[in-house]
Amino acid sequence: SKARDVWTFYEDSPGPKRTCLLCKYVQASKKDHVVKRYGLGTGTGPLRRHLYEHHADDWVSRCDQLRIPITAKEAQPAVADYRRRQGQNNTSTSHSGQPVLRRPFSNEAFVDAIIEFIVADDQVCSNKVMVLYVAYLLFLIQSINVVESPQLRAIFLMLRQELKDSDIPHRTTIRNRILQVMDEHLNQLEEEMAVCL
């Protein structure tokens, strides 16, 4: 669906209103925090503006964790500011004109980048309901085999001179990391839902 960077952070509530989940999260620790509510007809612009004006750090961080791209032009200054403060200001521009984060190399970042490629390459549909996530793992296992491709491994070796073939993860490593990330996300989701109850 469109505007996942917005709709992920709001829920419908009585009134009828849309309630900011990040406000509810803040209110759990700061009782005097006022939870922002909007009418159901409010567009994504004002809802997104609230997120980047009042919850920028939490919003960008959670979007990153959930692999939700923030592409709205009006939000880019807040995103860039967050990334600069986090030491993530190494960016380049993709062919679509969107900024692309250039992360420092580490074995863990390399494995995570491969996972992101597998998911973003439409090998797995990332906007499905969490319940379907387990079913997609079966398809993902088949997609993981891309890391065994001699051509892809040759590209990796070409891009980093000191990299050895033994440094490139195989499908078992990728599978284990995917399962670990899934468990982390499910645990985080469970904690966040407990706060909202």
Describe the structure.
This protein is mainly alpha-helical and 197 residues long. 57% of the residues lie in helices and 9% in strands. The chain contains 9 helices and 5 strands. It has helices at residues 4-7, 21-29, 44-54, 56-65, 76-85, 107-123, 130-144, 150-159, 171-196, and strands spanning 10-13, 17-20, 37-39, 91-93, 99-101. The chain starts with a helix and ends with a helix. Mean pLDDT is 78; it is low at 121-132.
Topology:
Blueprint lengths: L3 H4 L2 E4 L3 E4 H9 L7 E3 L4 H11 L1 H10 L10 H10 L5 E3 L5 E3 L5 H17 L6 H15 L5 H10 L11 H26 L1
Antiparallel strand pairs: 1-2, 2-3, 4-5
Helix pairs in contact: 3-4, 6-7, 6-9
Task: Briefly summarize what is shown.
By secondary structure, the protein is mostly helical. Helix content is 57%, strand content 9%.
What descriptors fit this protein?
single chain; mainly alpha; 57% helix
Spatial order of the strands forming the largest sheet: 1-2-3
Query: How would you sum up the global shape?
Result: elongated
Topology as H/E string?
HEEHEHHHEEHHHH
How many individual β-strands?
5
How much of the polypeptide forms β-strand, as a percent range?
5-15%
Mean pLDDT: 78
Distance between the termini: 26 Å
pLDDT < 50 runs, ≥5 residues = 121-132
